[in-house]
Amino acid sequence: MKEIIEIFNLPFDDIQEISYEILEPIYDNTGVCIFEGTAYFVAYTIYGARIEIPEKDSRFLTIKELLPTKLSLHENKTLYLRG
Length: 83
What we know:
83 residues, alpha+beta, two-stranded antiparallel sheet, 2 helices
């Protein structure tokens, strides 16, 4: 987890939680997709800040490769929670 926290460029002691979050696609009332959806890794700090790394960012793939388990593209997950 330390390598992932370093990618966010935050001090380890400032991290409260790291999670994988998705936004589902959005369709208008005629069924046309107006938002394709996205996924991102998020770091929440003890100060209330939220830092996002979206899937279009090259660091997203780096984080995904560091994870020991595969992530479902349809599931939000907490990856680290300060104990």
